[in-house]
Amino acid sequence: MKKKIKKYPRYKRRRQKNKHHIVNKCKGGRAVNENLLLMDVNRHNAWHFLFENKSFLDVIKLLVRCLGFKKHPDYLKAKELLDELELRNET
Fold it and tell me: Does 9 fall in a domain?
């Protein structure tokens, strides 16, 4: 007799949406269209569960660091892109 393999529950998108600030309110981000993303409620909750109130750039830095820990072949390219983003952000 074969064992039943437990499957992950299928992700269901909710019709409800939340507004996610690109620049956090606590860091001076305003509630204007240019600073808001409309996100599915589950994804928005997952974002904050994983990354708390980190900015997009901080999340990218974290993910690039993770690639470096694993000596992933894409690390150097990701690091270059991150450096480029940081330079753009400074100007």
Answer: no
